[in-house]
Specification:
single chain; elongated; 11 helices; alpha/beta; eight-stranded mixed β-sheet; 13% strand
Length: 309
Amino acid sequence: MGIFANGVKKTNLGFFQKLGRAFTAKSTINDDVLDALEEALLGSDMGVETTLKLLDNIQDRVEKDKYVDMQELTALIRDEIANLMGDDAPVQPFDFTKKPYVVLVVGVNGVGKTTTIGKLAAMLRKQGKKVVIGAADTFRAAAVDQLCVWAERAGADIVKQAMGADPASVAFDTVKSAVAKDADVVLIDTAGRLHNRVDLMNELTKIRNVIRRVVPDAPHEVLLVLDGSTGQNAFIQAREFSKATDVTAMAITKLDGSAKGGVVVGIADTYKFPIKFVGIGEGIEDLKVFDKKAFVEDLFKPEDIAGGA
């Protein structure tokens, strides 16, 4: 079983159930199959633009190479989706030549941002790295409390201030503490508000400016956390945050509870941000470094389905 198999099981099942109804053992790849393929891709929340692009590419190759059965079609789908998702270079989550490596974590409330930070800290601590977490979402007591719990579980240090404190002040103290402790990585939580993009932009700009007083080239990463189970809302959040700040990478969470795993493909194709992490469960080790090839293979695996090809 692949590392993403459980996380994308519902998407995989829904996709091949829809496609299988149009594709029998005697079928060729005809208009009915392509229509079913379009419905299945849209149903996985891949997005209209990405779906149409994918269908055009698949149809061209079907006509050129005369694909005839489900097995060949599945291989073709995997190939074309992988092409849409960028190059094949392995994901490098952190650049440990920069010390401390400062990550600013952004995303709306409820997407799993705080949990993702905790799991990242645990991943890094397992690698023997020293981690400092900054609780700069000072508008929600629950966020700070939750982050403290995760920091303790992961074995990471945490810097916090009183509720309502200036987030930039927390970020400054965090980076300053990390330098003093010779930490490897800094993970800074930020407020998950997007009701006013100008306010968000101003706040993130202020955080950038103050932490650069300590580490001139920070932040080294702006990690956008998206909830994969929200489908098209995740597209909207990606669009708005890309307007508000310089997003450099993504973490996509909660795929295990959704049949909308295609959103990963659609967002990668639309916004061109590299996906660095995918959340496939609630456990502390259920945040995985993204592997495009493994993800695509697990997302489209008909042999895992009873009665599949």
